Amino acid sequence: MTCVQLQRPPPRPVVCIPMATEFNEAVSMDLKIYGKYYFLVIVDMATRFCAATVVQNKCPSTIITGLFTSWITTFGAPKKILTDNGREFNNSEMRALGEAFNIKIMTTAAESPWSNGICERLNGVLGILVNKIIFDGKCDIRMALAWAVSARNAYDNNSGFFPKSVGF
């Protein structure tokens, strides 16, 4: 038939199964280099709620402290953490944290940043926002990152809700 109403709809694009369906089920974590600083960026994979903190180096103990102070103390331990294969994430200290808090630590394949695309995209957005805030507001890096994270959490996400409202 040639009638448009009776034709089959086009097939939907192939997408992967979501890693999380509820808040704090799975979080994604990455580092963003910003001048002489590093931003530890953590994003919930279900709600896209994000948290970030400035860390001075890429030492595993520094990363674990940042994760603990910016996420675990506020929201509790997630069930899963997805990171890249960097030595700051893929180490015995991180695995010990996973065992202590019953967190499944997962890593992406080597040389495949698209496997952690949610967090990689957020890194870019936060970098742009921090640049603008520092230029306009003349504030320090920590305050600029806090403003950027707050602004990012105020955007609606893929479900049509704001990450702040879905996470709480």
Overview of the structural elements:
The protein is α/β, with parallel strands linked by helices and 168 residues long. It contains 5 helices and 5 strands, in the order βββαβαβααα. It has helices spanning 60-75, 92-101, 117-137, 141-153, 163-167, and strands at 26-34, 37-44, 50-55, 80-83, 104-107. It has a 5-stranded mixed β-sheet with strand order 3-2-1-4-5, with helices on both faces. A hairpin with a 5-residue loop joins strand 2 (37-44) and strand 3 (50-55). Helix 3 packs across helix 4 (141-153). The longest helix is centred in the last third of the chain and has 21 residues, at 117-137. It is globular and about 65 Å long. The N and C termini lie far apart (51 Å). InterPro entries: Integrase_cat-core, Retrovirus_Pol_polyprotein, RNaseH-like_sf, RNaseH_sf. One of its GO terms (biological process) is DNA integration.
